[in-house]
Amino acid sequence: MKSDIEISRDTELKPIIQIAAQLGIPEDDVMQYGKYKAKINLSQINETAVQKSNLILVTAISPTKAGVGKTVTSVSLSLGLNKIGKKSIVALREPSLGPVFGMKGGAAGGGYAQVLPMEDINLHFTGDFHAITTANNTISALLDNYQYNNINTEKALKQIVWKRVLDVNDRSLRYVNTGLGGRLNGLPQETGFDITPASEIMAILCLASGLEDLKIRINQIVLGYKLDNTPFTVRDLGIADAIVILLKEALMPNLVQTTENTPAIIHGGPFANIAHGCNSVLATKMALSLSDYVVTEAGFGSDLGAEKFLDIKCRMAGLQPKATVLVVTTQALKNHANLTDDEAKKPNLEVLKQGLPNLERHIENLQSFGQSIIVSLNKFYFDVEEEIAFLKQWCLEKNTTFAINDAFVNGGEGASDLAKAVVDVIENKPSKPIQYQYELTDSIKEKLHKVATQIYRAKDIELSNKAKTAIAKIEKNNWGHLPICIAKTQYSFTDNPKIAGAPSRHTIAFEDIFINAGAGFIIAVAGDIMRMPGLPKVPAAYGMTITDGVIDGLS
Fold it and tell me: Domains, the chain, ranges and CATH?
């Protein structure tokens, strides 16, 4: 079979203006970025249509180093829905350059279930990440300038909490000193960098309902604390309009296409292990306004991405999924029974059975939200009929719909059965209204305890002294009513990435807690989780080449 990038190059793309026309978007509302990419004017969002359309969430079991193919499944399902005669759009996040050149090598689907042009989407795309990075770092520059000019006055800040960001994986930037070299070069301070997907600007862009809401949220960003310990915000600095100007075009969702020339909307890219892990509200609503079925994904496993999608994004935006697809692979199940990747590719039904508690845990968690579930097996060349038949029967006994996704090899036709299964669930037993894991009126500690015990199956939580102090400050400033966004390893229900399967009765240790008042949530850091990732021993960048303008090594 051809590589992902070969399939991408061999696919004949339609001009993006034709894809927009298929959706009924007037040419005046299409801002083209070359021939095959465009931004769509926010005027195309129709709230009445949003409520009538069918939103489908794609999530997964706890991921392993080999991955489970959640983006492949999201693209596949939309291809399958279009193949069986439904009008469908897939709405995804934008890839971050950090993982593209680090672990993943790309994040635009795979095989014959990709969003295209793959190279552009994986690299600089329409410049949204650059706009977010620039907006974030412009705030930093203006904030440092303010402190520099007010250091010996009553306007000086007691503490600065705002960090810079870059869209790279670079562990060396986690903790840095700035302002060195004497007074002319600024004021010395200890600070650090986060990766761009962890920026509060990214979260704000993805949760804003429009340009005015974007400005309101930017104004609410907490940059530091004054001498009297009250918050100092972007509103106090007086620069919200300047920052919104930098983000004006980035706020508009991006339209591209799939390997079968069906529409895809890609916008925003917060990670789910360090942020809330969903594409933008505006992109989701745009897709819902323009089609009858919208497939969207939430990052990593359902304990991270789906929980935040439901408890944060859906709660804020008034969205309601009609069904949830839970992605699984035989290899991942065997990984959760502690088999290595190479061994997990070999037939071994007994070991597969030992990995089923992880799948069962995710099913139970999603059902606790009121979701109707379709377990989707992302089929690989090494899968054997005995294991597939067993999984199908196991799901049947759990009263859970099961379907095979073979779109990686066979495109939309390979996802037709999955599409039919999803439509059947939506038409006959759709999800109930979301049953949130906590109430916004709960205390911060109660919210953390509920997610930890109900979703992670912990017996208790543990708060560091730093976390306790942060909670007291957050509650004192009347932010305690906000939802929580837990930053935690994606590989385990615990805060230890090495504990696979479905552990229970453990303790989740929260090391730090801080406020994203503009985004509208509280971030709680569990265990040893970094908001600036490092590179693996052999980064994907080592396998990339460009010859005569032709790129290879992206996937």
Answer: 4-126+250-428 (3.40.50.300), 137-247 (3.30.1510.10), 444-526 (3.10.410.10)
